[in-house]
Amino acid sequence: MSIHCPYCGVRPIEEFSMRGDATTMRPGTSDPANMDMKLEAEWHDYVYLRDNPKGKFEEYWHHVGGCRVWLVVTRNTITHEIYSVVIASEHSISKQLSHAVDLKMTKDAPTKEGPSS
Ligand SMILES: [Zn+2]
C-alpha cells in the first residue's frame, strides 16, 4: 500500500502513521463556565467514542518519514483502496465552513423540516 503525498509524491505506507478518525468535530466550546450536561456529553463522545466502520472512511495520516504534513486520506477500510488524499488544514477549513453553515441553518430554521411557507 502507498499514499500519494501532495508534496512528496507516491510514498510507501511505512513512511506514514495513521492518527485516527477525521470525521469527528470538536464541540463548540470548552469553557467550563458554559459547560452543561449536553456539552459534557458532546465532549465525552468527541474524546472517547470512535466508530469502526466498514467501507469508505476519512482518517488522519501523518507523513512522519517525509515532509511531516498531516493528511486526510479517504480509503476503503476493507479493500484499502484510497479514494482521495488532501492536506488536513485545507480539509479542516472546508469542514468547519460547512459545519458553520449547518449550525446557522439549524439556528435560523424554526423546525427540523426547515422554514414554513
Ligand atoms: Zn510528504
Protein architecture, described:
It is built from two helices and six strands, in the order E-E-E-H-E-E-E-H. It is an alpha+beta fold and about 120 residues long. The protein has a single domain (about 1-85), classed as Folate-binding superfamily (Folate-binding fold, 2-Layer Sandwich). Residues about 110-115 have low confidence and may be disordered. It binds zinc ion. Zinc ion (ZN) binds near residues 5, 8, 66, 67 and 69.
How many separate structural domains?
Answer: 1
Give helix and strand order, one letter per element, not per position.
EEEHEEEH
Sheet/helix structural class: alpha+beta
Shape: elongated
Strand order of the largest sheet: 3-4-5-6
Secondary structure: helix percent:
25-40%
CATH architecture: 2-Layer Sandwich
The CATH homologous superfamily: Folate-binding superfamily
CATH topology: Folate-binding fold
The level 1 CATH classification is Alpha Beta
Please state the average pLDDT score: 83
Radius of gyration: 18 Å
